[in-house]
Amino acid sequence: MALLNTRDGYGSLTKALHWLVVALFVFQFAAANIMLRLDDGETALGLRQAAYYNWHKSIGLLALMVAVVRLLARKRGELPPWAPSLSARERAFIHRAEQVLYTAMFVMPVTGFLYVMAGGYGVNLFGVVDLPNPIGLRPTLATAAKWTHIAGAYALLAALVGHVGLVLWHTLVLRDGLLRRMLPRA
Ligand code: HEM
Ligand code: HEM
Predict the structure, then answer these.
(1) What is the pLDDT of residue 186?
(2) How far apart are CA 135 and CA 72, in angstroms?
(3) What's the sign of the alpha-carbon dihedral 165, 68, 151, 88?
(4) Computed from CA positions of residues 99, 100, 104, 105, in that sequence, does the dihedral angle turn out positive or negative?
C-alpha cells in the first residue's frame, strides 16, 4: 500500500495518522472531563488534577504536531474518489464535517495554548520542561481563547457525531464496507 493517498485509496500514513488522532482526541476529552470535575487535592486513577492538566496540555500540543504532518500528507497525495455508495447529500455533509474536523485539529491546540500562556498558567511539557511564555499575561486574550476552546470542543463533538454516525450507518446498516477505506491493508 502506498504511503500517501492515491486514486486507489487512502495511503498507510493517512490511515495511521487518522487513528492516532482518534486516540489522542479520545484522551483529550477524557482528561478534560476528569480535570474539570476534580477538586484540588482529589485524585482519579491515582493522578491529581494538576497531572491531568499537564497531560491534557502536553498531549494537545503533540496532537498539533500530528495535525501538521497529517495536513501536509493530505496536500501532497491525491484524494481518492468518493465511495460510490455515498449519495450527493452525504458527500456534501462529509465534506463539511471534515472541514470542521481539520479546523478543530488546529484551533483546539492553538486556543488551548493561547489560553494557558496568556492566562499565566504555563505548560510543563510531559512533566519535563516548562515552556517559555511567548505571549505574557493578557487577560482579555486568555478569556477569548478559553471560550473559543470550549465552543470549539462542542463544534468538534458535533462534527464527530456526524462523521462517526455516517460511517457506522454505512458500515453496520447498509453494509457497504465504508469503514474498510480507513483500515490497514484495505
Ligand atoms: C487536540 C487538542 C485539544 C482538545 C481536543 C481539547 C479539548 C478540550 C475539552 C473538550 C475541554 C473541556 C471544555 C469544556 O467543556 O469546558 C478542554 C479544556 C481545557 N483545555 Fe483543551 N484540548 C486540546 C488542547 C489543549 C491544549 C494544547 C491546551 C493547553 C496547552 C489545553 C488546555 C485546556 C484547559 C486549560 C482547559 C480547561 C478550560 C476551563 O477551565 O474550562 N487544551 N480541552
Ligand atoms: C477524533 C476523531 C476523528 C477525526 C478527527 C476524524 C477525521 C477524519 C478526516 C479528516 C477524514 C478524511 C480523510 C483524511 O483526510 O484524513 C476521515 C475519514 C474517515 N474516517 Fe474519521 N475521524 C475521526 C474518527 C473516526 C472514527 C471513530 C471512525 C470509525 C467509526 C472514522 C472513520 C473514518 C472513515 C471510514 C473515513 C474514510 C471515509 C471515506 O471513505 O472517505 N473516523 N476522518
Answers:
(1) 66
(2) 27
(3) negative
(4) negative
